[in-house]
Amino acid sequence: MRLPEEPDIPPQMNILPMIDVIFAILTFFIVSSLFMTRTEGLSVNLPKAATAKPQQDTKIVITVNSKGEFALNHKPIQADQIAVQLRPLVAATGEATVIVNADEKIDHGKVIAVMDQVRQVQGAKLAIATRRR
């Protein structure tokens, strides 16, 4: 006894779950990329300079925000402690470029005080961060 043959149903692929997975992955990458932005600790509005050049080997950043708060490599610090905290960082590399990220609205005296602290450290090269015009 022979059973009647069933008609061949062409194989089907339901792509809706695959589209859901792709959108979920896309959403994950979009959201995670928002958190990958580079920040230097305190938010500052850098002054503009036509002759600004990017520094390649920057490892040490001192930030002064518009409120007059100081940070050394993203960690809050007092102005009179900059040289003390900077010495071991510069000594570890022998010679380092120290970038001063100062808000354009900050008092000039605070920037000079930071620069004076940096100059007291042997092997520290001083640079000031700016934006291109």
Poorly predicted tracts of residues: none
Distance between the termini: 89 Å
Sheet of most strands: 5 strands, mixed
In the CATH hierarchy, the third-tier topology of the domain at 60-128 is known as Nucleotidyltransferase, domain 5
- Secondary-structure element series: HEEEHEHE
Walk me through what this model shows.
It contains three helices and five strands. It has helices at residues 16-34, 82-93, 108-119; strands at residues 60-64, 70-72, 75-77, 96-102, 124-128. Strands 3-2-1-4-5 form a five-stranded mixed beta sheet, covered by helices on one side. The protein is elongated and about 100 Å long. The model has no long low-confidence stretch (mean pLDDT 81).
Keyword list:
elongated; 5-stranded mixed beta sheet; about 130 residues; 5 strands; about 15% strand; 3 helices; alpha/beta; Nucleotidyltransferase, domain 5; about 30% helix
Produce a short descriptive summary.
With 133 residues, this protein is α/β, with parallel strands linked by helices. It has helices spanning 16-34, 82-93, 108-119, and strands spanning 60-64, 70-72, 75-77, 96-102, 124-128. A hairpin with a 2-residue loop joins strand 2 and strand 3 (75-77).
